[in-house]
Amino acid sequence: MERYYFLFALALIWIIFATIQDLRKREVANWLTYSLIIFALAYRAFYSLSSGDFRFFAYGLLGFGIFWALAYAFYYGKVFAGGDAKLLMGLGAIIPGESINDLAINLVFFLLLLFFLGAIYSLVFSLGIVYNRYDGFKKEFVKRIGKEKRTLSFLLAIYVLLVLVFIGDLLFGIFNYESGFYFRSAFYLVPFIFFFVILFIYLKSLEYGALIKKVGPKFLREGDWLEKDVKMSRGWIRKSVHGLSIEEIDKLRRARKSAWIREGIPFVPAFLIAFLVMLFFFFFLGLFPREIFLFLS
Questions:
Q1: Distances (CA, A) of 169 to 148, 172, 186
Q2: Disulfide: which of 57, 155, 226, 262 matches 44 by Cβ 3.0-4.6 Å?
Q3: Are residues 69 and 100 in the same domain?
């Protein structure tokens, strides 16, 4: 594990700088993410040459390749912005692994940490956005609650019925063991579905009520995601997964055209949280993903 200390320190420093950039500017510089990839693979290559263990470089290259493929899928699926995707590629070259099996488990473990902790972080961060843009969020939330009123009412009615049946079972022993299992499953499943319907309404209200705004031409940034196509005197500037280019921003500024932009929640801090938790498992608890998965199974 000692040979990974440099890689861990490198990743931690780079992610901290990327987090600061993402929080301040809502973007991560290409030089930062590309240099992380280059330094990580260069270190693995030099170490492999000096030690004669070329698997160390090969596993780094394999981890980079796997996360490269996932990063492109997440980017084109609009799960990640460009900076997030490139940072994920870099971390693919960092994640340790002494065998292909070991590397696969560690990569999966980091992804699970990233998305689980990222979901918690995003939810908490979104509350600050809702607080600052409450009027727009409230209007959208009330509208969407109205649209889903029948679904929510149906789920509530089903759950009230289940509660009454549950009380009846306690008093009169209605169910046997097998039928009781199905009843208990429904009893816990209905509020679970209700929660996710509310969460879906919350996220959509956040998106359309607080994260879409009209931005003046001088405040546009490279990579901003257009919500609506912009009609120019000659042709259109179309929304794209790549966001606005420098050339398109120049056109909008010359034409003094504003644009409707979809903001995102800065996600790089979730990388920092997930990486720190992974290091905590490695160094403070002495637990590795293989042992954790074996324990949970």
A1: 32, 5, 14
A2: 57
A3: yes
Are β-strands 259-262 and 212-215 bridged in parallel, bridged antiparallel, or unpaired?
A: antiparallel
pLDDT in tens, 56-91: 999 999 999 999 999 999 888 877 888 899 999 999
* Overall pTM > 0.70: yes
Pairing label, strands 225-226, 236-237:
unpaired
d(CA 2, CA 11): 15
Phi-psi region of 226 (alpha: psi -120 to 50; beta: other; left: phi over 0): beta
Question: For residue 280, with 0-12 CB atoms within 10 Å meaning exposed, 13-18 middle and 19 or more buried, which class applies?
Answer: exposed
Residue 249 in contact with residue 222, Cβ under 8 Å? yes
Which residues form the domain of 60? 2-105+266-296
Where a domain ends, among 176, 193, 210? Answer: 210
Task: Give the DSSP letter of residue 95.
Answer: S
Residues 146 and 166 grouped into a single domain = yes
